[in-house]
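Q: Second attempt. The first request was missing the SMILES, so the protein and zinc ion are both included now.
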Amino acid sequence: MDKTNEVCSRIIGVLSSDRCPVCAMLYQDEFDSLCRWAGKSGEAYRDSEQRIHLVNSGGFCNYHFWQFQKISSHYGSANVCVDLLGKLLVMLNSGKYKRNLNILSAENTRKCPLCYELKQKEADYLKELVVVLEDDGVKTKYVSGCGVCMPHFIKLMDYSNDKSLLEFLFDTQITQIARIKSDAESFIRKMNPSSRWEQTKAEKKSWLLAIEKIVGRNGV
Ligand SMILES: [Zn+2]
Ligand SMILES: [Zn+2]
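A: Got both inputs this time. The predicted holo structure:
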């Protein structure tokens, strides 16, 4: 299976997950990638291409560094940090006693390799999503699911000039948001202990879907 077909079949498969399909795939990619970084955090990988890349990038961003430490061993974290601290010492020594330390600010020194990887993948997924949505069968599956979150909905607009597809995406987004809102309202109405047994599955998870629909997955 070539890369494009693989992405297409992943998108179609993830439509049943009841989450933003792009977020769901990136969530899995992020976890897989963090596991790979953690797996190569030992001393033995100090001269590996991956470690050199991480050190040259200045380490992960704040969010990914804390995610990384959750699955890395303490020794793995220490190993990676020793290299990064070494780099920081070289930079501090070269800028000693200077007042303007903008050159050391995170924006200038840190280009998180995991953020970069996920940005590339996100672009691939959005590009392929508009392709798979040309199929009427896929459209039906898409409508019955949660659809894309608002951040991905906005980005998706840059990936197609097909007027009928854009209309479909807009109409579907409105339908899905109205459905989640209605489920959340019913969920609240049935909050009394005596009514809670009447809450549907969709109502019970409406608060989670609502947050994801508004802002996308955690860390987007
Ligand atoms: Zn999303
Ligand atoms: Zn990052």
